[in-house]
Amino acid sequence: MSSALTDLFPHPIVQAPMAGGVSVPQLAAAVSEAGGLGFLAAGYKTADGMYQEIKQLRGLTGRPFGVNLFMPQPEYADRAAVEVYAHQLAGEAAWYETDLGDPDSGRDDGYDAKLAVLVEDPVPVVSFHFGVPSREVIDSLHRVGTSVLVTATTAEEALAVARAGADAVIAQGVEAGGHQGTHRDNAENDDSGLGLLSLVAQVRETVDIPVVAAGGIMRGSQIAAVLAAGASAAQLGTAFLVTPESGAADVHKQALTNPLFSRTALTRAFSGRPARGLVNRFMREHGPYAPAAYPEVHHLTSPLRKAAAKGADAQGMALWAGQGHRMARDLPAGQLVEVLAAELADARTALSTGGGPR
């Protein structure tokens, strides 16, 4: 990876920006202080809310960190399908004693206002999810000294990222927890996601910019594997979700290693976009019928998810998790970075001496 980025964090470990209140300043600060790259998630926050968290994070660490933005979404949802899904969710609203949300609550997630804040008061790194920002946007961030990363789920998307002038591409494999960062949400592609190692290899052969590998990584030996495949760093989300500094609900943290939740799946049930989470009642009952309609479905189900979380009802929550969730370790975030770095060093030593990674 270019020195402009590697100089920011000694260990090739990036904490994934997990929206919805998980990637709080305390988590990002702990990761950055330990030598990784901590991230705040600006998704679903106001521009002022994002600014206040950046201010709080700066009070916790002087180390570099990143902020993640969601790209505005085009209007292509089938309105009738959203109305049908709302009708189907009426029973959930009655069960949780709440109203459904307004599907027309906004499409751009305050994108322009957040960009204005980040240009006026720059941060070391900004990443983008759900699409590629314009070259003008990337140039504006470069002018204030900010490095830019963009998520891609295919080699073709990675090429668009490189052409826009980004400093690095985050290659997100299908194993990743939470939302897939596809640039356009085509329902016919729901079963065509690539595994991380295949994706990293294809992206490395397609673009010249550095690659950050994301998806199901929970151990230092896996970081060694993606680095050997051509990545410059690894991005981990689920591994940090269970840490004490994470803002995830306790019931969510506990579910990751609860035998009751034995597998993950991609679903549109909670947001209208493919996202990987632990299979629970809500996903089983509504996933097959959820339309490709983001953020309409996200707004629609928001009160339901909040009510389920308030009642500690794991069967009604969006329990985002990657495929490696059963390997989660309940360690402080800084200690986890240190353990991962030590495992990475051991794996590299074993590989260089002809032994297998431990």
Q: Can you describe this structure?
A:
With 358 residues, this protein is an alpha/beta fold. The protein is built from 15 helices and 11 strands. The protein has helices spanning 3-6, 25-33, 47-60, 79-88, 90-96, 111-120, 135-143, 155-164, 196-206, 220-228, 238-241, 250-255, 281-286, 296-310, 333-352; strands at residues 13-15, 38-41, 65-70, 125-129, 147-152, 168-172, 178-179, 211-214, 233-236, 264-267, 275-278. The strands form 2 sheets. It has an 8-stranded parallel sheet with strand order 1-9-8-6-5-4-3-2. Strands 7-11-10 form a 3-stranded antiparallel sheet, with no helix packed on it. Helix 2 (25-33) crosses helix 15 and helix 10 (220-228) crosses helix 15. The model has no long low-confidence stretch (mean pLDDT 95).
Give descriptors for this structure:
about 350 residues; 11 strands; 3-stranded antiparallel beta sheet; alpha/beta; 8-stranded parallel beta sheet; single chain; globular; about 40% helix
In short:
40% of the residues lie in helices and 13% in strands. It is α/β, with parallel strands linked by helices and 358 residues long.
List the helices and strands and how they pair.
Layout (H helix, E strand, L loop, with lengths): L2 H4 L6 E3 L9 H9 L4 E4 L5 H14 L4 E6 L8 H10 L1 H7 L14 H10 L4 E5 L5 H9 L3 E6 L2 H10 L3 E5 L5 E2 L16 H11 L4 E4 L5 H9 L4 E4 L1 H4 L8 H6 L8 E4 L7 E4 L2 H6 L9 H15 L22 H20 L6
Helix pairs in contact: 2-3, 2-15, 3-6, 8-9, 10-15
